[in-house]
Each structure stands twice: as C-alpha cells, then as structure tokens.
Amino acid sequence: MKTVDIKGKPYVMVKDKVSEFHRLYPNGSIRTELIEMTDRFIVKAIVIPDIDQGSRYFTGHAEEVIGSTQINKTSALENCETSAIGRCLSCLNIGIIDSFASADEVANALIKQEKEAPIKQNTSKSSENALKCEKCGSDMNDNKDEYNQPKKSTNYDKLVKEGKTRGLYQPVYKCSNESCKNSIWEEPIEII
Q: Residue 153 in 3-state DSSP?
C-alpha cells in the first residue's frame, strides 16, 4: 500500500485503506454513526468484511472539536468520520505498518499538538520575542482560554442557536495598547 512519511515513519492514508478494503472485501460494508453533535463530533464507524457474516465486524471511534484546527473550522464532521473509518480499518489490519493510526490521524494530531503548545502571555512591554501589533508596534497579548483555544464570544450560545458561524469566538491576540484596539483572529503562521 502507498504510504506517506510523517516525521520519519510510514503511514497509510484513509482513502487508501478504504480502497484496499473494497479490493479485499467486495461483499463488505462500511457504515458510520454520529454519536454526538455539540461543540464536538463523535463518530463510530463499523466495518463488516462480509455482509453475509454480519456477526464479524470491527469498530472505530473518533472525536473532533469544532474549530480546534483549520480543517475543523469548516469540516469537523467529515474529518471525524474519516478518522473513525481509518481506525476501524486498522482493527481489520488494513494499512498497519508501524502504527495503528492513519496518516490523516497523525497529521491532525501534530497540528493539534502545535496548536496546544503553551504560548506565554506577553507580560513585558519591551519583550524582544513578543508578537508585535502591525498598527502601533505594541506587544500583542494572548487572548486564549486555558486550553489554548480562542475564547467564545459573549453571544456564542445565541449565535449557535441562530445557526450563525461568524462572531462565535474572540480574537486570538489583542493589542496591549488599549487605544489601538487592533486584534489578530487566527494564529500567525511562522514561515521558516
């Protein structure tokens, strides 16, 4: 099976696991079930290698938090379903090389780890390494919650009930100069 190298280890993409499943088990079935849909999704996948022998099946579960990564801002459910299917197919021993996880899962985990890495709040006005405001040059203050995620807006529950997606979260960083009022809404990307 085709692999993707992530941090020196080979992993198989879920799409390739699914193709291999259909090649090996033409009478098989892949089903998914949405277990929870709140500010996160939990999906259960069920793989039956031969639908004529439905008592032999394999399961996999996944969880994705809406907005926790760039992909989960728009496609958390799809991402969650893909992960659940990948884990389920690993239970059937499809695509396991060095790890039970798929390439998709490992890539997502790395993104989450980078996002959850502790970022010190800018406390010194003259800090050399502090993120600087593009408008006034002052330090930008970290405005994330205890989980290193954007804080929910005060109107979050109301906006969700109305089905709105804009305005759910506060900016990730705010300028320390209160008269400037500049803010950054997404985590800056460091280009090396």
A: coil
H/E stretch holding 46 reads strand 40-48
Q: Which residue, 116, 143, 177, sits at the end of a domain?
A: 116
Instruction: Write out pLDDT tens, residues 116-174.
Output: 544 444 333 345 556 788 788 888 887 776 666 677 777 777 777 777 766 667 777 78
CA 74 remoteness from chain centre: 10
Domain that holds residue 172: 119-192
- 71 and 130 in a single domain? The answer is no
pTM of the complete model: 0.55
Tell me the C-alpha distance between 127 and 180, whole Å. Answer: 19
Q: Which alpha helices (H) appear in the chain, and where do they start and end?
A: 14-24, 76-91, 103-116, 156-161
Residue 88 and residue 65 share a domain:
yes
